[in-house]
Amino acid sequence: MSENQVGILDGTTFMVCDRTGDIVPSPDAPHGLFAHDTRLLSKWVLTINGERLTTLSIDDVNYFENRFYLVPGGQDVYVNSTLAVRRRHTLDTGLHEDLTILNNDRQPVDLTLRVEADADFADLFEVKDATRKQGRHYRRVDDGRLVLGYERERFRRETIISASAPAELDDDGLTLKVHIEPHSRWSARLSALPDLPMPRGLERLTIPGRAARTGRDKHRDLLEWLDQAPRLESDWEPLRSTYRQSLIDLAALRFSPFLADDKSVPAAGLPWFMSLFGRDSIFTSLQALPFAPELAATTLRVLAFRQGSRVDDFREEEPGRILHEMRYGEMSIFEETPHTPYFGSADSTPLFLVLLDEYELWTGDADLVRSVEQEARAAIDWINDYADLTGNGYISYERRNTKNGLENQCWKDSWDSISYRDGRLPAFPRATCELQGYAYDAKLRTARLARMFWNDPAYADRLEREAADLKRRFNRDFWIADGGYMALALDGDGRQVDAMSSNMGHLLWSGILEVQKAAAVVRHLMSPALFSGWGVRTLADSEARYNPIGYHVGTIWPFDNSFIAWGLRRYGYPDEAARIAAGILDAAAFYDGRLPEAFAGTARAETRYPVNYPTACSPQAWSAGAPLLLLRTMLGLRSVGDDLVIRPALPANLDFVALLDIPGRWGRLDAYGRGPAANGRRGYQPAPQQLSAP
Asked: How confident is the model at residue 63 (pLDDT cuts 50, 70, 90)?
């Protein structure tokens, strides 16, 4: 979101407004109150005596609550307003606005308050793509309430607007006549609540979410969430604030999909991705395992329940495939988009298996592993039978839904993210390098589960042989010998797509890269072409399509960097991992602890602060998870048997880090780490222009 927008959220319900608290219709901004992929308010504008308000300050109280302090009209240095206005927005099923006006004058005042309201009931895809609706809008004043509605066949949505004080209602909003005595105040609550009727018997099947909580319950829920997480102690205050903000953002993004029994999975990010995403939920759950392992458990159960069971070209569903995205809006219900659910990702399925094994390693929850055995075996079958589109033994992708399916079905899913060094786009199918790493890791991990929990050693042996063969062929076919790095992908003819990218960093955490090739790959990752000083760019600045503010062609993604750093520790490069951790955490300090989806790949030598990517989601789940995985990486946390292994390697600007009460199969344990100076070794030194270090 831009700096001119203010957002609050609670699961899949969220509101984006301007800095006065108004929702102003705009083709360039996703302003509105949204729930279940539908915009329930497209206009909500407050005026006093015909004038809009001017903002003095904004208090971002909680992720579900904020306060605006304002004065009526425009102000200048010669006029002091005698009226002070406070708007308090909270999300609880819908929007509640607590409006307070203080009269600081010696004379009474009579005011006319007006709220202009409207609801276009746009599907989120319509907001994003500026398309038009096909149904019928209606509105009526009914028993002291303004009802804004929309219907299309059996699909119906309504927003009910009311006020706690006497108000005159009309089709366009409500008007309140207010009298305030000298040095007194007036207050009222305005509400805009959704009515989302479903066909009888299908209510829980159609609409996800969690039971409505009161504001007090939300406060308690947040405090309990923070209290259950490990406690962080550090000599660097920005790390502490970043850690706390990450936990708060993950709390904000939680929601309970159908059959989750009020357990939570993370939505992907505000504003466009407030829904279930297979890849995003898996990556976020991996990042959060040492901090909130329950996210992984629910994610695994929900994705297993929604696993593909048939061949469906429109949804790109196949037996055993793990979903990419689940939506509940009008366009999905009428099959104008395929998201009920949509399966167009090539990585969610192997990553599901990776998360399953890592979750058991960390928690010892064998019951869950046994409960999803058939789904795990089906996922392996998908990798072997459906994902190998060219018969060369590699996962590749080519969309079957050519109308509105994703062209690129790896995590870099924008249209131009996969290219040759000279900028040409390769033919399909495309087999990106990290997909093969995920498949290798998935097979080895599933073999462990089969041997230990499914009593099937023959299946385990088969998977281990397949993984070994994949590793051998991969290191032969993807290795660019004259450059000393791994190809971004193989094209449809098996030719190397030779752009240098961050994708090869994922080969480290998956373990598919041969050890003798690792040093060269690490040199490239940490070279000025890829490492900006803030983090590793998605695409090297030597490539034709490089753009420091291109979505996947030069920006820096905190999530991407957190997994690259994790892989560097796995291959024995602690100082390089510490450099990446230091850069990303330094950047977080400039964002007040809330890392955005991405920021510009501009070199740190050129700027004293990270440059914003203009349309980044914030908060975003796997960006919120990035500091958590970086903490795990810096402390060297691994689960080995029933023990927690701790091998710290901190950046030089951190003298001390402690993570207390880490949950796992061992119960709760503490981890401590000292920086390089305390350990008597040289480590990553922050850049001279760094402002955020002590």
From this structure: very high
